[in-house]
Fold these 3 entries.
Entry 1:
Amino acid sequence: MTETFSGSFTQQEPIPEEAVEAALAVLRHGRLHRYNLARGELGETALLEQEFAAQVGAKYCLAVASGGYALATALRAVGVRPGDPVLTNAFTLAPVPGSIASVGARPVFVGVTENLTIDLEDLAAKAGQARVLMLSHMRGHLCDMDRLMAICDAAGITVIEDCAHTMGAAWNGVPSGRQGAVGCYSCQTYKHVNSGEGGLLVTDDEEIAARAVMLSGSYMLYERHLAAPGPEVFERIKYHTPNISGRMDNLRAAILRPQLRALDTQVARWNERYRRIEAGLRGTPGLTVIERPEAETYVGSSIQFLLLDWAADKVQQVLRRCAARGVELKWFGAPEPVGFTSRYDSWRYAESAPMPASDRVLAGIVDMRVPLTFSLEDCDLIARIIRAEVGTVYQS
């Protein structure tokens, strides 16, 4: 009898009861706007910022409306202007080049390796082309951050880290988002904490932090922040920084605070599931497992593998056959974007030259979400299905 999987790849766990109660408290008092506070009240959003800054070891934190808004705010805060080139990954999701385009800048794409990380040789070769790198830790894969920072420091490049997929991850014990000048995180439903939408920005640079707060729409209420610089820093920048409102509200912050306290536990659960699927896929003919470096502490909320040098129709056969058995796989090799699987040559608002080595990798990337609603037995079953269907098509 052919096994099938009947679970959902988009169903998240319920919001924790502690977060539900915190959200109800905000709804009952009605002060959803982050600056609408009762006398002596600190506010859920300000407390979230203070707690997340402490959690990752940052001086300053700002909560905003989305991860994409955090990225665009970081670009503006470090001084990117219309027309400026910004280095970024060829393998990433649309909000990353989208944030660059939103400030009128232009992406300069850097290649991807078979480990699904930014190609550091290509980065070194292009280092003279821009003064900012928006580094995307795409699908949770961290490159050699020590080498990357050495390249960027030597070239005078400011690094903004897109940590949408690496909240809770680390390189050599340093939390993701803490090596560059700015770290940006997403709190969207499919990320590691869930407020529907939302973003967090961290930095140790007082002027970047002050500009980000003003950009987010603080008006002159910046003194109500608990994880922001002192008023003397705002005095230097407040009349020269535009308000581009994108604040987080107290309702979403209330939902997030308990989830962030449980993040380490959730990371361990994700990685248990990731390792079960990874173990089940190892040794499958024609399939390449992505090896994780020893220095990387990862979060296995999704898993990728390569069908390297496969013909496109054979990859599509694998996707169809797995889908017929209930396993939803996404492919980054399709010529047209499908869902979130766009790639550097999909974004036609941004000029790009062909990148043959990266194109070969992108053509083979297969991606799958790993929700915490999966049991370990589900993970074993999913791996058996993928292994069987890849093997069948490969042998044919």
Entry 2:
Amino acid sequence: MSLTAKNIYINLPVKDLRRSTEFFGQIGFQFDER
């Protein structure tokens, strides 16, 4: 039986949230604004 992750939650402190979400969005991550 193999397990696969469907979601990954990362909590990192950042100085500029807008720049951070743009960067991670450009490398393929999706964000749930909830």
Entry 3:
Amino acid sequence: MKTVLLILFVALTALTAFGANGEKNFGGVGIDGVAAPDGQITVRQLVAGGPAHVAGIKAGDVITHIDGKPTRGSDFRQMVHKRLRGRAGTPVVLKVRREGVEKPLTFTLQRQQLVITAPKEK
């Protein structure tokens, strides 16, 4: 019985992971962010050539809105999994606050499948 439960757990885990990130049409914007205590997301780094990088989002930018909904007070994991990620080719609108810029900046990005490669060793 334990073996059957273990196999079932592994199968469900694999299906969940496949559905979330292994899906053929799954996409993202190429942002690695850090959640602030208030829920806003500070961009830590970008995927080179990803939608956010190409659009001009920079490390240090603070994402204040995703598709018009404020990030303040939101759950970080929910924002990433349900609002930033999605079907490749679909749009997402980010409003960001950038140090030294008075008004918020708005970026309309197209999610895309991202290929992240490890740096080559020399």
